[in-house]
């Protein structure tokens, strides 16, 4: 695998990470509700979750899930239920935003674990690895596993950098909203509706 292929893959990964999805929304919600530190740990959790999908894709477990209607349905509905739960939490939240100076309402481990679950329970991430990685591996490559792992590490590194960028952006948005307390409940409701919408879409969508 040459440098040109690696750079092309990196560009494709950046483009795909720019598409809004559950992970991006989760990072915005976590940062706006609990501050930059919480968002950062959530981003690390999401990044760790990506390695689960990478290992599954390389070993063929993701392909097994995606070709088994029962196994895929379990992953899909559990993920949808988790998104709906996050939406319900946002709806019932009445507290103001805790900007980076505030104390997170949850522990570091909880933010990390929730970010991890948010990524692992998203079957679209499995599709990302299954659909994109093989496009950059030559047929008959004797080192295909090594190259797949390398591409996966590149994608995960890019994802972590972009996730931290989303956290920084969310903190700036939070500071702007923080000056208008009346806007807090509307932001909470908007985040709640987005999570619920993503959960319902995941539950009803056929991939």
From TrEMBL:
<feature type="transmembrane region" description="Helical">
    <location>
        <begin position="148"/>
        <end position="166"/>
    </location>
</feature>
<keyword id="KW-0812">Transmembrane</keyword>
<feature type="transmembrane region" description="Helical">
    <location>
        <begin position="71"/>
        <end position="91"/>
    </location>
</feature>
<keyword id="KW-1133">Transmembrane helix</keyword>
<dbReference type="Pfam" id="PF01810">
    <property type="entry name" value="LysE"/>
</dbReference>
<keyword id="KW-1003">Cell membrane</keyword>
<protein>
    <recommendedName>
        <fullName>Threonine/homoserine/homoserine lactone efflux protein</fullName>
    </recommendedName>
</protein>
<feature type="transmembrane region" description="Helical">
    <location>
        <begin position="40"/>
        <end position="65"/>
    </location>
</feature>
<dbReference type="InterPro" id="IPR001123">
    <property type="entry name" value="LeuE-type"/>
</dbReference>
<dbReference type="GO" id="GO:0005886">
    <property type="term" value="C:plasma membrane"/>
</dbReference>
<feature type="transmembrane region" description="Helical">
    <location>
        <begin position="6"/>
        <end position="28"/>
    </location>
</feature>
<dbReference type="GO" id="GO:0015171">
    <property type="term" value="F:amino acid transmembrane transporter activity"/>
</dbReference>
<keyword id="KW-0472">Membrane</keyword>
């Amino acid at each position: 695998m040459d440098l040109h292929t690696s750079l092309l893959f990196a560009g494709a990964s950046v483009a795909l990470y720019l598409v809004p999805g559950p992970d991006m929304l989760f990072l915005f919600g976590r940062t706006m509700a609990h501050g930059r530190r919480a968002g950062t740990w959530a981003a690390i959790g999401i990044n760790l979750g990506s390695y689960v999908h990478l290992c599954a894709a390389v070993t063929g477990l993701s392909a097994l899930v995606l070709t088994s209607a029962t196994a895929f349905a379990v992953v899909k509905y559990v993920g949808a239920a988790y998104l709906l739960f996050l939406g319900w939490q946002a709806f019932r939240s009445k507290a103001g935003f805790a900007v980076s100076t505030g104390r997170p309402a949850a522990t570091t481990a909880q933010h990390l674990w929730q970010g991890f679950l948010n990524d692992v329970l998203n079957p679209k991430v499995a599709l990302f690895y299954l659909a994109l990685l093989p496009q950059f591996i030559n047929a008959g490559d004797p080192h295909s596993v090594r190259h797949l792992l390398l591409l996966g590490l590149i994608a995960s590194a890019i994802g972590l950098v972009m996730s931290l960028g989303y956290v920084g952006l969310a903190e700036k948005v939070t500071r702007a909203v923080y000056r208008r307390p009346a806007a807090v409940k509307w932001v909470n409701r908007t985040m709640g509706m987005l999570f619920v919408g993503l959960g319902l879409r995941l539950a009803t969508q056929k991939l």
